[in-house]
């Protein structure tokens, strides 16, 4: 299993480097823009708007706390943009490690070895977790460099909390799509469901803030469990962690049952 | 005391959805046998091999390797004793040959490189280039080495020599002969009958998902002979030491085809004794002809190999 983990990390080295640099640079840029937002008075403007227009925050992010670095990062970086990136990241990584590997015959080659299907599942799953940790560390590093560049003091407890839940969300989404891929072996279903989970969560969470009838369904969205602005105010909710970890574990358990038994072509 | 077969395929059927890929396949392979599986493309050879390797689940019937039932969830337990390669094997193309063998060495928990060294010396693959940059022949050498490097008790090969040049194909056949002589059980599929006939002690013929023949090497060798097609004005019987391929009455007279397996002089004597002869042709009947006879759908089902 460790052998497979190392091989997977080696195979994905370009992906890890590219995404780490990309996310770090994006995080760095977001903090470079902070001084411009801090003094813009957008938050005061929002306070004067009627409630109907305040609902727009779902589309533009929460701008009620732009004057503090943590509020700015929560509303503009972690709340709407990072989940979008995580969705794309999850689908690409998970499809690559599951259905793409099966289509190219690599899963068959692995299964011809003295390697159980469960070990195959976990060998790659551990690689997914490590890749998610690596990209999260890169993102935090970008924030650190950005904070140094614009001479901003970040509340590192808040950044750690946000990063931790973001990490859980990325592991949860990637594991979910990876498990769909291993359980079905079908690219169309895996990509379709992966995009549905990512884009659906994004649309549901952003529009539910403006559309009343969507609000009861918003809990279906995975992004509901990464409430960045609430994390800044109240810390990590244990229920969000339980849901994200629960979905991850449930996906793995279902895959153990399905992937062990199905045909691999 | 009965000898436990290395491989037992017992009434195995496999459907892909509603498509029947193979039907009611039975055979056994004992330790030390070198068995070939021959059939046209799409006959079901790869399906049988994938079922034996545990990549697929049988729709009906059972497969046992070393006495243990093979299922997708437990096939890995038998794999330390099994080597596997295919003609279009998906090797890990991001690795070099050396890295690939190191990966396999860890997977098989091999302690020494002796066997690997011998095989590399024999096949001389390019070890230091990434596999994706190698020619098909070089990739195939790596696949074949990977099948034998762990010193397995059973080697399963699916169209193993495709991509090899004639020189390497000869080396591959020498390897099969060498391993077979050492007591390694080998099960290989191919559509090159000659390749199979050269190295296998037994050949299974598969057509349209059904096993149609299971013949020993001796039977295969006895299928050599002369294919005779004769037209006569009256119905006649074929000679002794022949296998009738078919006969019919046509506008030209009575036509009959048979394989004559005795000496050419006896065939000549028999032909001279036919008083009602209108026409005849004689051709060499080799293994390829036997294969064609078996797979020619226009001809009758009951053909002798």
Explain this structure.
The complex is a heterodimer of chains A (265) and B (305). By secondary structure, chain A is mostly helical. Chain A has one domain. Chain A has 14 helices and no strands. The longest helix of chain A has 33 residues. Chain A is globular and about 65 Å long. The mean pLDDT of chain A is 88. Chain B is of the alpha/beta class. Chain B folds into two domains: 215 residues, Rossmann fold (3-Layer(aba) Sandwich), CATH 3.40.50; 61 residues, Alpha-Beta Plaits (2-Layer Sandwich), CATH 3.30.70. In chain B, 29% of the residues lie in helices and 32% in strands. In chain B, the strands form three sheets. In chain B, strands 6-7-8-3-9-10 form a six-stranded mixed sheet, sandwiched between helices. In chain B, strands 2-1-4-5 form a four-stranded antiparallel sheet, covered by helices on one side. The C terminus of chain B is likely disordered. The interface between A and B is medium-sized, with 23 and 28 residues.
Q: Which structural class matches the secondary elements of chain A? A: mainly alpha
| Radius of gyration over C-alpha positions of chain B, nearest whole angstrom | 23 Å
Elements of chain A, N to C (H/E): HHHHHHHHHHHHHH
| pLDDT < 50 stretches of chain A | none
Task: Summarize the helices and strands and which ones pair or pack.
The complex is a heterodimer of chains A (265) and B (305).
Chain A: H1 2-11, H2 13-32, H3 34-38, H4 42-48, H5 51-54, H6 57-60, H7 69-78, H8 81-103, H9 106-111, H10 117-149, H11 156-184, H12 187-208, H13 228-234, H14 238-261
Chain B: E1 7-16, E2 19-29, E3 34-38, H1 45-52, E4 60-65, E5 68-69, E6 82-86, H2 97-107, H3 114-123, H4 136-148, E7 154-158, H5 166-181, E8 185-190, H6 193-199, E9 202-207, E10 210-216, H7 217-222, E11 225-232, E12 242-250, E13 253-260, H8 264-272, E14 277-285, H9 287-295
Parallel strand pairs in B: 3-8, 3-9, 6-7, 7-8
Antiparallel strand pairs in B: 1-2, 1-4, 4-5, 9-10, 11-13, 11-14, 12-13
